[in-house]
Specification:
The protein is mainly alpha-helical and 128 residues long. The chain has six helices and no strands. The radius of gyration is 42 Å and the shape is elongated.
């Protein structure tokens, strides 16, 4: 501790001793009685607090266990539904193979690009 801390401690102790001498006897008696009562009373912990802390700790451990170990069912031999949907599509929905198509289709690529860009998905045709 530094010199300043020792000086502060000495001044605080002197102030406390002066203030305790200036307390009237009735107030001093009440303060001593309150101190005895506080020190003699057993530590009062409610039953709910004694039960709630271990129960909440158990709940946290159980939740952490469930988060780490989730039954995922393991690897399945059946493909997921999204993969089945891809497999079930019509082969004509795929773009044509370049080796098997007519070269005339590739002459107007800008038109097909414009058509794909401006296609509304058939909504304009259904609204008429």
């Amino acid at each position: 501790m530094s010199q300043h801390d020792h000086e502060l401690e000495r001044r605080a102790r002197d102030l406390y001793l002066r203030a305790s001498r200036d307390v009237d006897p009735a107030m001093a008696g009440r303060l001593r009685a309150a101190r005895r009562t506080a020190l003699s009373a057993p530590a009062h912990h409610s039953t709910a607090r004694r039960v709630l802390i271990p129960a909440s700790a158990f709940a946290v451990v159980a939740l952490a266990t469930l988060m780490v170990w989730q039954p995922l069912g393991g690897p399945s031999s059946a493909p997921p539904a999204a993969m089945q949907a891809v497999d079930a599509t019509d082969p004509t929905d795929l773009p044509p193979d370049a080796d098997n198509t007519d070269p005339a289709l590739y002459q107007d690529l800008q038109f097909y690009s414009w058509l794909a860009y401006n296609d509304t998905g058939g909504q304009a045709r259904n609204n008429k």
